[in-house]
Amino acid sequence: xxxxxxxxxxxxxxxLMCGVGAGVLYEGVRTYELHKLExxxxxxxxxPSAGDYDQFMEQSGxxxxxxxxxxxxxxxxxNDQELQQAIVQHVRQVYEAVHDSPRSGMxxxxxxxxxxxxxxxxxxxxxxxxxxxxxxxxxxxxFVFFYGLYELYSGVHQSPGDNVAHFAxxxxxxxxxxxxxxxxxxxxxxx
Length: 191
What we know:
Layout: H1 2-6, H2 8-46, H3 50-60, H4 65-76, H5 81-99, H6 107-123, E1 128-129, E2 138-139, H7 140-156, H8 166-184
Antiparallel strand pairs: 1-2
């Protein structure tokens, strides 16, 4: 429906701008997250403590219940070199896993898709959609709104092993919104 309204060239331009914009925004967020993790990693390796260990594991997104046990053991025995080395090795493995995770693959395409989803909901808000996982029709504006909230929540509260670029999806929604507002500014007809 968007391509019919805009034409093929404008649709392709929109798709590409949303994809590139989402990729740039995601890489900015990813760089910020990795910088915070690197600071926590450096602080812990320099002077292993239970508090720094807990902070690192929290920021990595890989915190497990057994990490609380390890932090408590480190707090009870702060001078135990063998325990410190084992925990430092675990922190190093988590740091390398997070640092080398493949979250940047295909994020432009998924960000572009979310930009198109936003444009569809913006231009055709009351179109009813029948989705496989909802047994009832849902209007496009509600579907995209709740899907965007889900992506924001999933990006902020990432579960361990989640390799989805949630902030690329949010970036696609944001870039789509900006482009649509720019295109419609100063026009009496949007298309």
